[in-house]
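Journal club prep — side note

Before the paper discussion, L.F. wants everyone to see what a predicted structure for a comparable chain looks like in token form. Sequence:
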Amino acid sequence: MGSETRPAARRRSRISPDRAAELYALVLDRLREVGYDALSVEDVAARARMSKATIYRQWGGKPELVIAALRSLGPPEIDAADTGNLRDDLKAYIGRYHQLAALDRGMNRAVAHAIHRDPRLMDAVRQAVVEPGLAALDTVLSRAVARGEVPAGCKALPYVKYMLLGTLHGGAVLDEDVDIAFLHGYIDHVIAPALGLRDPRDGPAARPDR
């Protein structure tokens, strides 16, 4: 038989990069508006004027579609700032996270809620957001050790990432707004003392027992 009688199931629609970008933007908008649980492929398809079959065939389902939409944003620009001292490096680092969070609070709330419901989404967020951020933090801490600011054997070093992640997300858990002054104070009064960093305003001081 001729090719015109070939079953439709064998044909795959082609979605252009521009059309996919439009769909991703729509998915992210709906994620902000209704959250992950209420977001549906049917709703997205109707708003995008695209068939549900096309979305399922191309992406597989809601989790995969949301993951693709989040990945379309690209990794966050979290640099391993080099100010010359660890205290200010950490303030620059946490300040960048705070800045990014402030740009899209609705998205961040929706994603933070969703990742605990879908392991695949959690893995995608970990790869796209968390791991690049932790890599930058490792660079900041390793540089401080190389400068001699913190001993390589400092017992507090392994806990820094947990302290930073905890305070960054603590505001959402407590339903409180955490501003940059609070974050800088957290570094000054919690993380810096734990690492034995001297506050230059205090003059010479003995390092705590490590």
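L.F.'s comment for the group: The chain has a mean pLDDT of 82. Keep this in mind when we get to the figures.
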